């Protein structure tokens, strides 16, 4: 129903000189969608208050309300006479609307409120529209979108996810903004979160893990109290980058989470030795950024000091888990075998502090645009590792933009992981069989069919000469027939 509207918005944005690429497209679409969502949310709350005979105090007031500046109407019809347009619209957005909304950050009672989220979003963002005529067209398209039903939100979330995926592939590391959803769903199935448990992603990006976890837990038979728990006390995330934070907020909102528990901060600024029990979570699902080269003062927050961002995040996650908590974390496969001191120390810490029970080896091309191979580490906090079940994912084809990972590719992994069966793609390594000095965890499949031995150069040359002789004879026979 909304595909045509999104396509029309995209065509409008291509004509806007202030918007240059897919990242700008998603960013600028996000703030307009967010304000329309807030308008619909306020309308719902006002109606509910009226039914209960109560007064409703709107979050956004006066000339800043959607129906005042974005979509003024008379008798249900758009009022072109009173609608701001051209330079007047851009001036209002830049000098009045954005400063008004950014001020919510200071006036909000706590970071968990929707008011604080509004302030954070509009503190980070700036309006990139230069043409008030193009912005007017976009506003009218977005005004036609509704967030009132689950079906409407689902369709909007699907369209928004498609744009996030394209943004993740827009000449950047594909894993920076977008983790393939089939991989996320498999990680969730293995960790198996339940209502009442908390789920955390300290590098949440576009909040794909939290959105998929919400979809996994939101069943039709949830009680009102369970639904309230899911909405407000289940999903937690932190994100350093402003654009990713905004997209994550919008993505969660579109998936039906009214006031996402996302915090805009650098997770690695927290000293891991200061993490207390009240700060810990039952489930951790994450794909932390690789590389990065963190500054020396950030490294001081960790017992194993390294510039590799993913290694710092892994230390954070180990300490952020409750006793008995479960985690699934994507990391470069080189972590399993690197011989530098930080890699060896971190492998030893992981094996001692948690039970690393499963390693999923992902094929090349799992992450579009990423030049590295990855693995997923599944571990449980508490007892040390005894044995590790490996699974080498092989979809039987080359993965790429036109042939991405799908749920069927991971179905066997999810099924076999429950029983830890061994076969051509899976095997078990005992902790006692690891090298005590290096704790090398490399993926070395002992059950894979042996590759045929390569022929010697002498055999290859002899075969080539034999074929050349056959070709010469055939050509002589043809000459004789002419």
TrEMBL record:
Enzyme class, broadest EC rank: transferase
Family: Belongs to the N(4)/N(6)-methyltransferase family.
N6 adenine-specific DNA methyltransferase N-terminal domain ranges (all copies): 11-80
Domain spans labelled DNA methylase adenine-specific: 152-451
Pfam families named among the record's database cross-references: HsdM_N, N6_Mtase
One record GO biological process: methylation
Keywords on record: Methyltransferase, Restriction system, S-adenosyl-L-methionine, Transferase
Molecular function terms from GO: DNA binding; N-methyltransferase activity; site-specific DNA-methyltransferase (adenine-specific) activity
Residues spanning the membrane: none
Documented EC number(s): 2.1.1.72
Protein name: site-specific DNA-methyltransferase (adenine-specific)
Record field: catalytic activity: a 2'-deoxyadenosine in DNA + S-adenosyl-L-methionine = an N(6)-methyl-2'-deoxyadenosine in DNA + S-adenosyl-L-homocysteine + H(+)
Keyword Methyltransferase: yes
């Amino acid at each position: 129903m909304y595909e045509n509207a999104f396509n029309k918005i995209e065509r409008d944005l291509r004509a806007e000189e202030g918007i240059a690429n897919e990242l700008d497209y998603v960013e600028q679409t996000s703030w307009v969608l967010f304000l329309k969502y807030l308008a619909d949310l306020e309308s719902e709350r006002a109606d509910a208050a009226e039914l209960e005979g109560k007064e409703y105090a709107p979050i956004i007031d006066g000339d800043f309300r959607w129906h005042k500046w974005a979509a003024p109407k008379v008798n249900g019809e758009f009022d072109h006479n009173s609608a701001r347009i051209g330079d007047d619209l851009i001036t209002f957005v830049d000098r009045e609307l954005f400063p008004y909304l950014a001020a919510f950050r200071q006036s909000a009672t706590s970071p968990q409120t929707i008011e604080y989220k509004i302030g954070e979003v509009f503190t980070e963002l700036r309006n990139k529209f230069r043409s008030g005529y193009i912005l007017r067209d976009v506003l009218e398209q977005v005004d036609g979108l509704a967030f009132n039903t689950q079906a409407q939100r689902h369709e909007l979330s699907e369209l928004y996810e498609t744009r996030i995926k394209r943004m993740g592939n827009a000449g950047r590391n594909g894993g920076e903004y977008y983790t393939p959803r089939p991989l996320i769903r498999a990680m969730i199935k293995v960790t198996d979160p339940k209502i009442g448990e908390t789920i955390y992603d300290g590098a949440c990006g576009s909040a794909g893990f939290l959105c998929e976890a919400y979809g996994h837990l939101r069943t039709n038979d949830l009680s009102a109290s369970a639904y309230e728990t899911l909405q407000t006390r289940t999903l937690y995330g932190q994100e350093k980058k402003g654009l990713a934070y905004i997209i994550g907020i919008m993505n969660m909102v579109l998936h039906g989470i009214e006031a996402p528990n996302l915090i805009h901060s650098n997770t690695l600024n927290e000293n891991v030795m200061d993490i207390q029990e009240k700060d810990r979570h039952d489930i951790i699902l994450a794909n932390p950024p690789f590389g990065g080269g963190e500054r020396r003062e950030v490294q001081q927050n960790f017992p194993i000091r390294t510039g590799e961002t993913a290694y710092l995040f892994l230390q954070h996650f180990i300490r952020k888990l409750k006793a008995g908590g479960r985690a699934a974390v994507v990391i470069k496969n080189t972590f399993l075998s690197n011989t530098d001191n930080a890699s060896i120390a971190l492998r030893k810490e992981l094996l001692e502090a948690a039970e690393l029970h499963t390693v999923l080896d992902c094929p090349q091309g799992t992450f579009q645009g990423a030049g590295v191979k990855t693995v997923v580490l599944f571990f449980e906090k508490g007892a040390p590792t005894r044995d590790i079940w490996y699974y080498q994912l092989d979809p039987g084809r080359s993965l790429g933009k036109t042939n991405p990972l799908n749920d069927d590719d991971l179905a066997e992994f999810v099924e076999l992981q429950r029983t830890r069966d061994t076969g051509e793609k899976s095997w078990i390594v005992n902790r006692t069989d690891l090298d005590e000095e290096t704790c090398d965890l490399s993926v070395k499949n002992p059950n894979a069919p042996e590759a045929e031995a390569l022929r010697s150069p002498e055999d290859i040359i002899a075969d080539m000469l034999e074929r050349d002789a056959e070709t010469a004879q055939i050509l002589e026979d043809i000459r004789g027939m002419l």
